[in-house]
Amino acid sequence: xxxxxxxxxxxxxxxxxxxxxxxxxxxxxxxxxxxxxxxxxxxxxxxxxxxxxxxxxxxxxxxxxxxxxxxxxxxxxxxxxxxxxxxxxxxxxxxxxxxxxxxxxxxxxxxxxxxxxxxxxxxxxxxxxxxxxxxxxxxxxx
Length: 142
Hints:
This protein is an alpha+beta fold. The protein has helices spanning 11-19, 28-35, 75-89, 104-113, and strands at residues 4-5, 40-44, 48-55, 58-66, 94-100, 116-126, 132-141. The protein has one domain: Gcn5-related N-acetyltransferase (GNAT) (Aminopeptidase). It is globular and about 40 Å long.
């Protein structure tokens, strides 16, 4: 399956895929609710997913992931490159995201693509064991 636009028809697959990568995965209903908003857009293939909120000249990455068995193949980077192309086409000024401070591979990817750390959200992510982890805020100016 090549990269395609994420639609309501993908909520079941998206939810299952999300479960492979996050402590608190999104349900089918959460995907459905988000994709029902006119500001939400996304792309996916069989092993990776990117969902954004696009409002005026700004984009927030809501989620991005690659199935653990498909990591290291450049899929997340390809999704980010697709997003950056989309952002340029739409005259977007900036893209931002939050990432778990412990997610070193994702942080390395974001920095490689050009994102810069702009802040910290204390205790932003709730972990399975009930503890909390900081989130780093990253920004890419287009």
